[in-house]
Amino acid sequence: MNSKKKIIAWWSGGITSAVACKKAIDIFGRERVRVIMIDTENEHPDTYRFKKDCEDWYDLPIEIITGIGEKYGNIFDVWRKHKSLNTATGAICSTQLKRMVREKWEKENPTFTHQVFGFEFDKKEFNRALSMTMNHGHRVKAIYPLLMFGYDKKDCLEIVNQTNIEV
Q1: Where do the H-state alpha helices sit in the chain?
Q2: How far apart, in whole angstroms, are the C-alpha atoms of residue 55 and residue 87?
Q3: pTM
Q4: With 70 as the cut, is the pLDDT of residue 2 above it?
């Protein structure tokens, strides 16, 4: 594998993505992993405190990308434009300000080999991973560390608590 190519670990601000990112760093090394947060600029202020704590834990910065300022000025613009909070395929803000931002980033940054997602060891998350792999596997090249290690949310909470990071 080309050592210049990076593995992208997506950090959402939640406990499961925090542990998935840490596992990716432990497995592939800090020099290979880029940790990235997609910021909707509508996160709880404590998310940014947790981000800083995770950066210290990882000994790596968590980069921030955002879709705010391109098509939308804020999350309310998304709701107004689409006249909806939620659709059959999920929350419209998640689609517009997270998934589409990630997909745009993927196209503009082809130097990664794989992407890490924090899907926990749970039936619903297995289904999400299966769907992502089947529908986008050729592009995303997903790695699911929590599924590989059999970690559910409770396990992730225990791991983070062992670091003395406030959840």
Answers
A1: 15-28, 45-58, 75-82, 92-94, 100-108, 123-140, 145-149, 153-162
A2: 34
A3: 0.88
A4: no
